[in-house]
Amino acid sequence: MTEDMIPVNPDTLMQFDCNCENKCFNDCCRDLNQALTPYDVLRLKNNLGISSQDLLKAYTSLHYGPGSGLPVIEFKPNPDKGYECPFVTPQGCSVYKDRPGSCRMYPLARAITRSRQTGEIQEYFGLIEEPHCKGFGKKTGQTVKQWLKGQNVDKHNKENDKLIELISLKNRILPGKLEGAQADIFFLALYDLDEFRGQIFEQDLLKEFNIPDDILVKIKTDDQILLNFGIDWVKHRLFGIELSLGE
Ligand code: SF4
Ligand code: SF4
Q1: What are the phi and psi torsion angles at 63 (to 5°)?
Q2: 93 CB less than 6 Å from ligand 1?
Q3: What is the pLDDT of residues 86-117, one digit of tens each?
Q4: Least distant ligand from the CA of 76
């Protein structure tokens, strides 16, 4: 949480309403500087019915964290239109059903801690009251918890927490900057899922692992299982952790 956030808890009343009647409609989709998670990329590419390569190339930019060497994928905003999101339209978000987790959360931010003993996750929330957003001060009677339910954000948070766990593992085992080849594995297995799948099956990447046929079929046909496998693959290739083959 940063200093300009107001800490809130699940039972706090939001006093916030976002709708297309607000003068600021779509303003939050401009001046973008928005990082995407692997699960965001998965949902967006499937929404558009295109491959991960095509999505990443057309709609995102890639850079590497200067200290960590981790890949950072961001929306490629349109400089001729106020750096707006490539998916915003006058009617609103054209990928609403599959919009990223951070779009669902706004104007809330979420941070987590995980107990090393029990694995239990503790969530913390903060409200970002930005001047351009005119949704504040409206009494809807919704608590933070009810707002989050309405945004259908639980699945995104659950999947995105796996990335947070992976990054904290990286920071413990490989502090400092990843080398180029390590960063490439991270990018391939988490973000460029269709290319990863292609390499698994065309280059027989898994031949030494004796993976049961039923799991191979799931990796071949199910993006969610492929992404979970990608996380295991990064743990194996970068940190030497045995493949769990968990789904
Ligand atoms: S700026 Fe705030 S109120 Fe306006 S559309 Fe975005 S989230 Fe809704
Ligand atoms: S994905 Fe949708 S909600 Fe998110 S910034 Fe783009 S247009 Fe706005």
Answers
A1: -140, 175
A2: no
A3: 999 999 999 999 999 999 999 999 999 988 88
A4: 2
